[in-house]
Amino acid sequence: MAIFGNNKFPVKDKLVLVTGASQGLGYALSQKLYEQGASVILIARNKTKLASNVDHIIKSTPNASSTQFVEYISADLTIYEENIKILNYLKSKNYHPDILFCLAGSSHPGFFMELTPDDLSQGIDINYKTALYFIHALSKYFVQSKSQPGQQKHIVLCSSTVAFYHFTGYIQYSPMKTAIKALGDSLRQELKPYGVKVSTLFPGNFASEGYTEENLTKPAITQSIEGASQPITVEQCADKVLYWLNKGDHYVFTDLISWVLASFSLGFNPRNFGVLQVFVAFVGAVVARFVGLLHEHDVQVAFDKLGGFAGEGKNKKDDVKQEKVEELLDDGQTVGTTSIDSSSKATTDVKK
Ligand SMILES: NC(=O)c1ccc[n+]([C@@H]2O[C@H](COP(=O)([O-])OP(=O)(O)OC[C@H]3O[C@@H](n4cnc5c(N)ncnc54)[C@H](OP(=O)(O)O)[C@@H]3O)[C@@H](O)[C@H]2O)c1
């Protein structure tokens, strides 16, 4: 990482695509990127929110340059064909993106045995496929299309602190965020020869709409274990992301605890303050297992106190889903045959 030197993440006059931009971090970053001189295309499913965000961004940035634009594309990125429609739209407008921010994602906390098959599918689809399909569909066009001379293209993926420490309650989410970390690491090596830089964000908690939603089902024991990570605001998170990307980081952290947890499992990972991380890694090698054992003990105590976890952390939405699973079982169907009807999903709506 760079301590001194120029901005390693210039966005002025660049075209940036941001997924997950109907709310939360995606929206906050879209706004800041536009303020800093980039043209931005916001992507998510909710057309009403996207249109209102675009409107707000334009109105709140009166000094934008005449060459800048901000648009939205409504698409369900878990459906590969909708990513192809985005690609076709870019081609039709002769748009050549310089930066892809893949931020779509969400968590539905809960205990493994209480999650429904739909919860599990959503975890895989929203957290992994949205990034995998989006990058894959755009990749050939992205690497081949012109960039500013001497300037690098950039893909930014969004993982989470929980990719470095897996604990109870995040089983629908954290394995997928580890998959995003692996995707970023693999793409970093493979796309470097094409002049594409790949960074991965590992944010700690920040107070987005999604964070409020996930707290509705978050078990008390999960909240207790993650207690060390207090939420920052979405704007603070977006500022930290841009700050560390400007410094040139491949792994971006938004709080100390995430950096410490990442340092505990350095391996082949890119380094941030590498010498210090080696020292922290040594400390981690000594103490991390004891912290893990302490948390295992806390989980056992919580389990004994409640007489089992059944019902803990659930809300009414879960009860409805659980009833559906029970209905299937009553009908003699196996849970494994439950499938999501893709025809009922939002269709791509490419609109300026
Ligand atoms: N908040 C936290 O504390 C926290 C911590 C660590 C990491 N993260 C990660 O940071 C990223 C942003 O988090 P956030 O809290 O800002 O999220 P959020 O408020 O839940 O927003 C999620 C965004 O993803 C979009 N999205 C979901 N499914 C989609 C799909 N199938 N196709 C296209 N877009 C889809 C949503 O829009 P539509 O519903 O309109 O499609 C929304 O814009 C996520 O990847 C999250 O996992 C968050």
UniProtKB/TrEMBL annotation:
CDD domains: KDSR-like_SDR_c. It catalyses: sphinganine + NADP(+) = 3-oxosphinganine + NADPH + H(+). GO terms for biological process: 3-keto-sphinganine metabolic process; sphingolipid biosynthetic process. Keywords: Endoplasmic reticulum, Lipid metabolism, Membrane, NADP, Oxidoreductase, Sphingolipid metabolism, Transmembrane, Transmembrane helix. Pfam families: adh_short. Its EC number is 1.1.1.102. The chain crosses the membrane at residues 274-295. Residues 334-352 have a biased composition (Polar residues). It comes from the Eukaryota. GO terms for cellular component: endoplasmic reticulum membrane. Residues 330-352 are annotated as: Disordered. Pathway: Lipid metabolism; sphingolipid metabolism; Sphingolipid metabolism. SUPFAM superfamilies: NAD(P)-binding Rossmann-fold domains. GO terms for molecular function: 3-dehydrosphinganine reductase activity. Belongs to the short-chain dehydrogenases/reductases (SDR) family. Catalyzes the reduction of 3'-oxosphinganine (3-ketodihydrosphingosine/KDS) to sphinganine (dihydrosphingosine/DHS), the second step of de novo sphingolipid biosynthesis. This is 3-ketodihydrosphingosine reductase TSC10. The lineage of its organism: Eukaryota, Fungi, Dikarya, Ascomycota, Saccharomycotina.
